[in-house]
Amino acid sequence: MTDSYTRAVNTGFTKTLAKKLGLPRPAVLRRFRAGDPLTVGPVLVVSDDASRGDADALATTLLGWGLDVRREPTDDARWGAVLLVLTEASHPTDVSGAVLAVGSVLRRLAPQGRVVTVSRPAADGDAPEVAAVRNGVDGFLRSLAKELRAGATGNGIVLTDGAAADSPSALATLRFFLSARSAYVDGQLLPVGPSTAELPADWDRPLAGRVAVVTGAARGIGAAIARTLARDGAQVVCVDVPAAGEGLARTANAVGGTALQLDVTAEDAGTRILEHARTRHGRLDIVVHNAGILRDKLLANMKPAQWDSVIAVNLAAQLRINAQLLGADGGAGVPGLHIVSLASTSGIAGNKGQTNYGFSKAGVIGHTRATAPLVGAQGGTANAVAPGFIETDMTSSIPFATREVARRLSSLQQGGQPVDVAEAIAFLASPAAAGVNGQVLRVCGQNLVGR
Ligand code: NAD
């Protein structure tokens, strides 16, 4: 549910009042619904001269997706999206024409519009001017995203290790950023490498035939993840503690999946998950480590149980489960496993009263990066999603004033919905995203805290 302030400033008398008083007016974000158009209007594709070949290839793909694609900024359109391709720019002075062309249409970017950059990262050995223009895109995109209004977002694809602009994982990422699935992802640059991935036969069911496990699925973000993975075609094993059995059964029934009552801190949690997935569904392809707890205290007041329980559930359980899954079958492990772990912006920027939680979530980012090459060698991936402020039971316990500040301190001026986190996870878990490995994708509305 959209929060009551956002609802008020978008309806009736209170909308007019908020406008007159100059109050922040967060937009009601457009979320994915099967059958809705991919973008809310035509797509403008611009590039610097050297990147024209990549821009042509991407424009051709967008046309194939049924979009109205234009190559010149004109006054007659209400733009649904702008794609800025700077993959081959080799000097900062190369990009001004393309960047200013983007600027010339921003006043006519439709509400819920999208700006997506496509670039390459600065790397060791680059000439200084090449590194300058490549890194420049980062600061440009993050700044531009803060200027966009009315639910519009800006995100970037960073092609690593020579990945082609129209490689399957780059295209899957582009589609995610253009679509309403990325409603609460803003100001993010996602590295995408080469892979042997293939695009899905049906973009509305990219997880068809896959079996996924979601921990902490009884409520909140976990329940939304289970629903979203099932909507995208996966069979879902829903895991939660026995005490949450009712909610767990509700989620499992709603998604046509199975329920596994299990405390993720159990010594044999990974083995039991694998056994359940294989006996009930015949295979295991996706693991979403979502179960998590808060025990907020200033470190000066922290009791051992408060520190230890957070580390046990949020971090040590993920490590143990991964070790059991990757070491299963005498060491061969589950091949091609897609692992997505819940981190948090608190693990990136830090948060007062959350030394235990911040440690656990930064630890998740650490093990994700270390696990990525191990699973990547077999065609799998390990990624993390770092939500900002998401409207759930967990955050409804935060005192009102703190909660209100946390909501508004992002470019989208509102908290996200559980489904926003779920959409990012469904994207990262999809076979086409195999080129995204070892990454942390923030789902935070470009929270002003941290990067
Ligand atoms: P929630 O408290 O609403 O749900 C968490 C679920 O995990 C519950 O169903 C709970 O029973 C289950 N769980 C807890 N310990 C477990 C255990 N030992 N074994 C199995 N299941 C267990 O939380 P949420 O807000 O939906 O958060 C989900 C995840 O997202 C967590 O990892 C959290 O840290 C992360 N996150 C949430 C936010 C937010 O704003 N809500 C922000 C950043 C990160």
TrEMBL record:
Domain Ketoreductase, first and last residues per copy: 210-388
InterPro entries (alphabetical): KR_dom (IPR057326), NAD(P)-bd_dom_sf (IPR036291), SDR_fam (IPR002347)
Signal peptide: none
Family: Belongs to the short-chain dehydrogenases/reductases (SDR) family.
NCBIfam families: PRK08261.1
Entry protein name: 3-oxoacyl-ACP reductase
Organism: Isoptericola cucumis
Gene name tied to this protein: fabG
